[in-house]
Amino acid sequence: MASKYPVFGRLDSGLENGLSSIGFLQAIALVRTWERKEAGAGAAVSCKRRDLLDLPLADFVRLAPALGEAFAWVGDFLERQCIVRPNDLPYKTQLVPLAAVRAILGDGMEGQGPQEKIEQWYWCGVLGEMYGGSTETRFTRDVEQLVDWIRQEDRAPDTVTDAFFFTERLDTLTTRNSAAHKGIYALLVKQGAVDWHYTDSPLSPGQLDEYSVDVRQVFPKAWFRRGNSQGLPTNSIVNKTPLSYRAAMDMMGAPSSYLSTLVAASDLRPEWFADVVATHLIDPESLRESDYKRFYTDRSRQLQELVRSVMGKPTMLRDVSEGNAR
Q1: What sign has the CA pseudo-torsion 317, 319, 325, 326?
Q2: What pLDDT score does 178 carry?
Q3: How many angstroms from the chain centroid is the CA of residue 237?
């Protein structure tokens, strides 16, 4: 199955580079066993190894085109989430049940209500880091529960109800290999971040490669060598944001110093450039004053709100009950 979506890569290239062949077969098995269960001919939805080995050729031939279209739909969905490059994909495995549900429901997944549920499920899976372990059981639960939920059933899937984002997790999201790290990066683009060099409009999925956009540190590493961290994490997602390579080239030294360079290069008034900075959920005044504590506290608060908005639930302190969530 050829795909125009770079995030998938080639089906036979393995999970390292894109959707794997086994992922495609698992999606077919999920749909087939769901159909059998609905018809009363099977006991459970499943995609275990035996389901793949016992998959009849006729069922594969029948279902493969529908799954091909479903994965193309998933590619469109990911692009709407501003995830278009393989290295930016939080979980490849989460695409398997999503494609299976699309194949089952078809156009029943269109419309504002279903789309909102799908996005909430997706971001709960990413930010709650629900697909980091064994996935076969979660595949089957998500297919059954997501289908029912989209069909107006009251109960949300376990991936939604069991997912939580702990506030202190922001401090420890330091590596781009983390699903939540990748998720917040994508959400910053999705919510309207404007590049600090190409300031004409918010970043779009198509510009991520064109402008060599990557995660860049707001307060540079060299600045912390002078002991300016105030005991706060320096390499977490709180101190990172999606920016072009060209913008990063001007971000040397203290933010109070490099901001004037960026403003001059942009041909914008300082107050207008402050609005550009704010699109990254960053307090511009904290950069003008090179006040890392103010920056870190305010950015953490804004990122928590961003997470809360897409997960549809409050962020949590690990040592308190949900009743005291913030």
Answers
A1: negative
A2: 95
A3: 13
Does residue 81 contact residue 119 with C-beta atoms inside 8 Å? yes
Residue with tokens 């770079």: 6
Tokens 């999201």 correspond to 173
The pair of structure tokens assigned to 186 is 């994508």
Q: CA torsion, points 276, 282, 284, 288, in degrees to nearest 10?
A: -120
Q: Measuring CA to CA, which residue among 267, 245, 255 is closest to residue 200?
A: 267
The DSSP string of 242-260 is: EE-HHHHHT--S-HHHHHH
Q: Which domain holds residue 175?
A: 169-311
CB proximity list for 129: less than 8 A, separation 6 or greater: 178, 179, 180
My answer on whether 152 and 210 are in the same domain is no
Q: What are the pLDDT digits (tens) for 126-179?
A: 999 999 877 888 999 999 999 999 998 779 999 999 999 999 999 999 998 999
Give the CA radius of gyration of the chain. Answer: 22
Give the 3-state secondary structure of 148-165: HHHCCCCCCCHHHHCCCC
Q: What tokens does 230 get?
A: 């105030």
Q: Per the structure block, which two tokens stand in for 13?
A: 């290239």
| Total number of domains constituting the chain | 2
Q: Six-digit token pair at 213?
A: 């956009």
